Amino acid sequence: MDRSSPAGKNDRRQFLFHMLKGTALLLLQGCSGLANRTLDYLPPHAYLPSRRAIETAAAVQTDLPKETCVTHEVAPMETVPRLAQMYGVTERELTEANRLKPGEALQPGQKLIIPHPARYKNIVPVYENDRWQYIVIHHTAGKTGKALLVDRIHRERGFDEGLGYHFLVDNGSLGKGDGQLEAAPRWIRQDEGAHCKASNMNVRSIGIGLVGNFNDQKPSAAQMNTLIQLVALLAIHYQIPACNVLGHCMVPGAKTDCPGHRFPWQRFQLSLQQVMPASSMLARSR
Hints:
Elements: H1 6-28, E1 38-41, H2 51-56, E2 69-73, H3 80-87, H4 91-97, E3 111-115, E4 122-125, E5 134-139, H5 147-156, E6 167-171, E7 178-183, H6 185-188, H7 201-204, E8 205-210, H8 221-238, E9 245-247, H9 265-275
């Protein structure tokens, strides 16, 4: 079938939707309260597969040289099990390489050796929670950043709980990968955000921040790839319609240009339409 024809495009959209939905459904089986499994998806930037590979595989992982050892800086509330999933190593390998005691809590900023990582994946924990009705997209308005730095900046601004977003998409600065995803403590705890007071969005929306100032430049391709997949997966899991995915400046009552004049909103929306079902374009009903 001609992929450029309407029928071909519809088949492709249906394939991508069922691929994402099928992955999400695996998480829902037997789960109540906080999810005890995580949702993993395509790795960013350096390990990013071609679009053809994305379309023909439900999950992609990229092997790394076996002799490779990398250093990972621990972000707030990261754990040994989650890092083991991210890098494709065992929890025992991580604890032994870093002389950690079983169950020992990791500290933000702690440097860990990742011995012989098999691959890298972004990991998205999902939870049973019906409070999330919107997704709000932000930029940090700074050229560099990572969860630890944004957490410190937000605390200095008076945010008692630190990092105001639920997720942060890195841009390759300060030792983080381009398109690397960091799940913030507010998301792990399922707390309300501190990213958008207007229209009571802190209480009912998932806040996603991208590192960068998008009044000056556009997000990187790797950041957009991560953002599109993250939003699609969250929207499907929490039944959030596409019309409820907003830029900060689009929220009624918000007086800001966030996520910046150069954020490619139209392209972002078109990409979402390719992977979200038609029912998600309609109003939420629960």
